[in-house]
Every structure is written in C-alpha cells, then in structure tokens.
Amino acid sequence: MDKIIIYHNPRCSKSRATLALLEENDINPEIIYYLENPPRPHELTALLKKLDMSLNEILRKSEAEYEDLGLGDSNLSEEIVLDLVCKHPILIQRPIVVRGERAVLGRPPENIFKLTEKQANE
C-alpha cells in the first residue's frame, strides 16, 4: 500500500476527525502541518491534479484573507492566486489526504475510504 499523507490542521475539527478515522483503521499517515509548512506552488498544483479539482474549488472563501487579498476578483490570473494561496495556506480546504497519485478532501472524513485498500476490495 502506498504511504498515506494528510495535510493537517490540528485546530480544525474535520481535520482531527479525519486523522482519528485513519488511525482507527490502523493507518498511520505522514502528517504535514501545512500551516507551518505550506505547499509551494508546484506542490499545490500537483495536489490539485491528484484531487481532480480546480484551485477555486479548494479555496476557503469564508476566510478573512480571501476577501482581504481580493481573491474573488475574476481578473486575477491562476498563477497569482496560486502564489497567494501558498503564502496564506489558511485558504486551503482541509484536510487533504493523499495516497499515491490520488487524493481526497476529508470533508466528510469518510472520503478517506476512497483511498484505502478496504474500500478498493469491497
């Protein structure tokens, strides 16, 4: 089985619940505290590909930074938004769980089963 990685924010209830669900299923993921170690633009681009989502789909639009940085402006290029999101990782939906070339948002936490052997064999 490929290593499981969780981009985790311990202050987020969904992130804590997702990590707990992984551990309850005997999965000890590599934990990346992404607020302290934000992804670089190329890393976030790779995560988006694994998630099969757009940058806009993983933005936390309710965060003050979203408004403060003017990220609702449709004239901003994807490159500029990507750079800003990497500098302000609080804007990234969490948690993101990765296994190999696939990833899911842990919203709801049960989404992790899309990545596990248990689900794949059922």
Topology diagram in text:
Layout: E1 4-8, H1 13-24, E2 30-33, H2 41-51, H3 64-68, H4 78-87, E3 96-99, E4 102-105, H5 117-121
Parallel strand pairs: 1-2
Antiparallel strand pairs: 1-3, 3-4
Give a short summary of the structure.
By secondary structure, this protein is α+β, with helices and mostly antiparallel strands. Helices cover 35% and strands 14% of the residues.
Structure description:
With 122 residues, this protein is α+β, with helices and mostly antiparallel strands. The chain has a single domain, classed as Glutaredoxin (3-Layer(aba) Sandwich). Helices cover 35% and strands 14% of the residues. It is built from 5 helices and 4 strands. It has helices at 13-24, 41-51, 64-68, 78-87, 117-121; strands spanning 4-8, 30-33, 96-99, 102-105. A 4-stranded mixed sheet has the order 2-1-3-4, with helices on both faces. Strand 3 and strand 4 (102-105) form a beta hairpin. The longest helix is centred in the first third of the chain and has 12 residues, at 13-24. It is globular and about 45 Å long. The protein starts with a strand and ends with a helix.
- Summarize the biggest pleated sheet: 4 strands, mixed
Number of domains: 1
Tertiary shape:
globular
**Which CATH-level-2 architecture?**
3-Layer(aba) Sandwich
At the fold tier of CATH, the topology name is: Glutaredoxin
Mean pLDDT value:
93
Tell me, what is the CATH class? Alpha Beta
Series of secondary-structure elements, N-terminal to C-terminal:
EHEHHHEEH
Instruction: Give me the Rg, rounded.
Output: 15 Å
Strand % is 5-15%
Poorly predicted residue ranges:
none
With helices defined by DSSP (H or I, 4 residues minimum), what is the helix count? 5
